[in-house]
Amino acid sequence: MQIAIASGKGGTGKTTIATSLAKSLVGSHKVHYLDCDVEAPNGHLFLHPDIQTQKDAIIRIPQIDTNLCTLCGRCVEVCQFHALAQTADEIVLFPELCHGCGSCTWNCPEDAITEIANPIGIIESGITPDGINFCHGVLKISEPMPTPIIRQMRKYKSLSRDSVVILDAPPGASCSVVETLRAVDYAILVTEPSPFGKHDLLQIFGILKDLKIPAGVIINRTDGHESDIEQLILEKQIPILMQIPFDKSIAAGIASGRTLVELQPEYRERFIAMFDFIESFLAVEQVC
Ligand code: SF4
Ligand code: SF4
Hints:
Order of helices and strands: EHEHEHEEHEEHEHEHEHEHHH
Bound molecules: iron/sulfur cluster
Distance between the termini: 18 Å
Number of strands: 11
Largest sheet: 9 strands, mixed
Structural class: alpha/beta
Helix content: 25-40%
Strand order of the largest sheet: 3-6-7-2-8-1-9-10-11
CATH superfamily of the largest domain: P-loop containing nucleotide triphosphate hydrolases
C-alpha cells in the first residue's frame, strides 16, 4: 500500500506525521519511507538512517551532432519546454530547461541527436535503526526540476504490494507534489487551523479530486480555533483522521530531532488505529 503525506502549505508537520507513522508501523509491517521533498529533505534528521547506497539521479538531455544537423528546426518546433533555440548556424540547448522528454531525438529526421546523462541530484537509501527502509532524493543546488528525481526514487526499490510505502511529499501544490501523489492508494493531508492552512488545503483537495485519490485529514496544532477548517473538511466529505493539539513540549522535542511517537508514545496506538481505518476503507473501496 502506498500512502502519501501531503499538506499544500509548508510547515504544517507533514514530516512529523510521516516519520511517526513509519515508526508506528515498522513492528508489524515492512515499511519504506520515501522523502520526496527533494529540495529540502529532512526525514533523515528524525529517522537517522544508515545510508548504504548512493546513486546519481539523471535526466537524458540531447547532444546534437553538428555534422549531421541540417538546421531544419524540427527539434526546436517540438520542444514544449523552450529548451532549444535556433541561431543562424547552430541549435542551442538550455540544459536547465530540458525535461529530458526525448521528443527532439524522436523527431529529428537526420538522427543527429543522441542523449547524454545530465546528473541533477542524488538518491540515497539505507535502513534506520528500527528497520525502516529509507530513501531520499537530494536535488543539486541550482537545478530547477525536482520531478525526475521523485520519479526515479519511486522506481529505485522494488516496492511490493505487501509493504507499506510512506511518501513524504514536498510542500505546495506544484508538479513535484502531483508526481509524488501519482498512483498512491491514499493521501493523508496535514493541515493547521489558520487561513493559509485552509486556503492551501482547498488547493490540494482539487488535485486529489483530479487524480481520484481518496484522502483523510490530520489537523495539527489545534488550539480551539479549528471550527472553520473542520467545516471545510466536512463540506468536502473527507474524514478527519486525527487532531493534534498545540503543545510547546512537542514543538521543542521535534525541533531537537525527535519524532512525535518518541515524545509521546501514546500516539503510536493512534497512528496504528488510523492505518487500520485506512486499510479497511481501501478494502471496502476495492470490493465496490
Ligand atoms: S531536428 Fe535534427 S536536423 Fe533538424 S535542427 Fe534539430 S538536430 Fe538538426
Ligand atoms: S529532451 Fe524534450 S525538453 Fe529536452 S530539449 Fe528535447 S524536446 Fe526539449
